[in-house]
């Protein structure tokens, strides 16, 4: 099984587990989110360690072993990206299974189990980008939109689209529901590794908001900002961010 096939299979299966937890346990809100996180994390970590024992592993839900920093290949996972949305039984949450090779988001899959029928987007099965909308749409946090995203949206005459998890927002650009995902409010490597790998495979621009590369498997896992957008918007958005700063 290739790395991409493994990532997709794990993301799909973790999504099924999360739906089962949601549908069979009498839980809601934070309690449901915690139960889903723990159950999916146990499955993903156990399976990855068995399938790729020589690789490193970084999970939001595991104590970090920085010995991974000495490895070229490190799996970076988020069992439930958008725990709040999952706990509220919304659809805009995701499962991230990404593989960093030499610090690059190289391979991965993002599952969106909450959508009707469930969807998985993966690096080995890219599809053509849908036609862009005439007015650029920027996906932003539904609770705390980043200041830079709001200002860039005004500058380019765009439209804000509130949405939940980082994975859901990144995949909205891949799926043609938005043109730009600009985030500056703070994230960690597990929030973006798999989404960036998938977005790059689909031909999207992916970088920090100053245009520098996104680097993974760092000892400090904080990765405060990112830009995922259609390539035709990258230069304009980066210029607007630079102007704001």
TrEMBL record:
Summarize where Mg(2+) binds, as residue positions. 60, 78, 81, 191
Domain of life (superkingdom): Bacteria
Q: Name one GO biological process term.
A: 3'-phosphoadenosine 5'-phosphosulfate metabolic process
Reported EC number(s) for this entry are 3.1.3.7
Needed cofactors, names only, are:
Mg(2+)
- The record's top EC class is hydrolase
InterPro entries to which the protein is assigned, alphabetical = CysQ/Inositol_MonoPase (IPR050725), Inositol_monophosphatase-like (IPR000760)
Q: Name one GO molecular function term.
A: metal ion binding
Keyword field: Hydrolase, Magnesium, Metal-binding
Q: Which PANTHER family match?
A: 3'(2'),5'-BISPHOSPHATE NUCLEOTIDASE 1
Identify this protein by name: 3'(2'),5'-bisphosphate nucleotidase CysQ
Taxonomic path? Bacteria, Pseudomonadati, Pseudomonadota, Alphaproteobacteria, Sphingomonadales
